[in-house]
Amino acid sequence: MSGAERQLRQDRIALHFLAYDLLALASLAYEQGMAVQVESDYLPLAIVQGKCAV
To answer: How wide is the angle at C-alpha 45 spanned by C-alphas 34 and 37, nearest 5°?
Structure first.
C-alpha cells in the first residue's frame, strides 16, 4: 500500500468519528438552556439539539 493510499484510507476512517464526550456535554448544556454556538463534523448541531436520530 502506497503512502497516498494509506492517507486516503485514514481520511475515510476519520469521517466516521464523533466526539461522544463533548457531544454529551453539549447536549446536556443545550437541554439546560445554554446556547451552543460551535458546530463541527465531530459535534453536529442537529444531534446536540436532538433533531435527528442516530
So the answer is: 45
Task: Round the average pLDDT of the chain to a whole number and report it.
Answer: 79
The percent of residues in the chain predicted with pLDDT above 90, rounded, is 15
CB atoms near residue 17 (< 10 Å): 9
Q: How far apart are CA 26 and CA 47, in angstroms?
A: 10
48's CB contacts (< 8 A; 6+ apart) are 23, 26, 27, 30, 36
Q: Which 8-state DSSP code applies to residue 51? A: -
pLDDT class of 38 with cuts at 50, 70, 90: confident
